[in-house]
Specification:
Length: about 400
């Protein structure tokens, strides 16, 4: 029988720990994750609460940054929250959203206890990822105002209470511009105000990801938000497949880039551990990959024009959220099958230190690529291919 990545095992890390001797496991982990990520002790009460509420709680420190003579350390604790929906998709919109709010409320309280400064939630965290269905109602009723919708009001109170910046990716209803929908991340300050919004730049047309039925590519560019805990950007889901998308957040000075996502094992799991980590290295910033978790079943069958039988589920959202560092180190991933909170302490000084060490920004030749891209977008462009004159093909 063929093995499927929809098989619901806990995590890669748990399988390795179960089958490898301790000394071998240590070497394997060093090879897989680098030397920078070490486990940190979290408060006993936080661990007990996570156990009682059945979510995975892990804590790490990226201990790589040098102690500088002229700059103090800039230690920041990043939180990444992944969660399942809490009610069947047949429940009312309000029942579903309220239940998710309650779950996130519990996890934010634990994040505060773990001294998290900035926390990111998963893509469209307030709702089931219903964009596979191509049905408009009731799913578009989850859309809300980015500035004064119920989820923003709920999180703004928590952000101020906990002195925590919160990244809130929602389905946005843009009432000021014809009631259109957007896939949007709201950046909420630790003072309780909305700093601003950023929208999803790249929209998938693959498999069951029928998102352009609901919203199109975003129009906010590559905004970076200056906060009390560093310069933050948000590369929403499918944008992680586009290196130039990651690049521009770095060009605009990001130090932490969140990648809130909703992706399933059969489609993308082999890519997941690579893309955000590559971006952290190439752009000299920290990345935070956050993926939805669980399997969501919808009332009506749907197809995706790929010849496969009609079905009612997207597949298994495999969680596995992690943080990657500009030196290439990364944390282990959260559970593939349970809600989770990942706490990672890092020193933002490492961003500049890696630029100094590797020189990626100094050598990236933006001028060269700007010129090449300017030519490539012209209708008259011809690919610069040099053919072998002796070839008979």
């Amino acid at each position: 029988m063929a093995v499927s990545l929809d098989d619901k095992f806990e995590s890669l890390e748990s399988i390795l720990a179960q089958h490898l001797p301790a000394d071998v496991l240590q070497k394997v982990n060093l090879s897989l994750r680098g030397s920078g990520s070490i486990e940190v002790e979290l408060p006993a009460n936080a661990k007990e609460t996570a156990k009682q509420l059945n979510f995975d709680l892990q804590g790490y420190q990226i201990k790589v940054a040098l102690t500088e003579q002229t700059r103090p350390s800039r230690l920041v604790r990043i939180g990444a929250i992944q969660n399942m929906i809490q009610k069947p998709t047949t429940a009312t919109v309000k029942e579903q959203r309220d239940a998710i709010h309650q779950r996130i409320d519990q996890m934010l309280a634990v994040a505060h206890e773990c001294q998290v400064n900035v926390v990111g939630l998963q893509e469209a965290w307030t709702m089931p990822f219903a964009f596979c269905t191509r049905e408009k109602y009731p799913w578009v009723e989850f859309a809300e105002s980015a500035y004064d919708g119920p989820s923003t009001k709920f999180l703004a109170e928590r952000a101020k209470k906990y002195n925590m910046v919160i990244i809130s990716p929602i389905l946005e209803r843009d009432e000021a511009h014809g009631d259109v929908l957007w896939n949007t991340a709201v950046i909420i300050s630790n003072h309780g105000n909305v700093i601003g919004i950023t929208r999803k730049n790249h929209i998938p047309r693959v498999g069951d990801f029928n998102e352009s039925t609901y919203y199109m590519e975003g129009n906010t560019g590559h905004k970076v938000f200056e906060t009390d805990f560093g310069r933050i950007a948000v590369n929403i889901c499918y944008g992680r497949h586009h290196p130039q998308n990651w690049l521009m957040y770095g060009v605009n000075g990001a130090e932490i880039v969140f990648n809130p996502s909703a992706t399933v094992g059969a489609l993308s799991e082999p890519l997941w551990s690579i893309e955000a980590r590559n971006a952290a290295i190439a752009n000299s910033y920290f990345t935070v990959g956050i993926n939805r978790v669980g399997t969501e079943t919808f009332p009506n069958e749907f197809t995706s024009g790929d010849g496969k039988p009609a079905h009612t589920s997207f597949g298994h959202f495999y969680g596995s959220s992690y943080v990657a560092s500009p030196d290439g180190s990364r944390t282990p991933g959260l559970s593939r099958i349970r809600d989770g909170l990942l706490v990672t302490e890092c020193d933002l000084n490492l961003c500049r230190q890696m630029k100094d060490k590797w020189g990626f920004r100094m050598t990236q030749r933006l001028d060269l690529y700007a010129e090449s891209f300017a030519r490539a977008i012209q209708p008259s462009y011809q690919m610069d291919i040099v053919k072998d004159s002796s070839s008979t093909k």
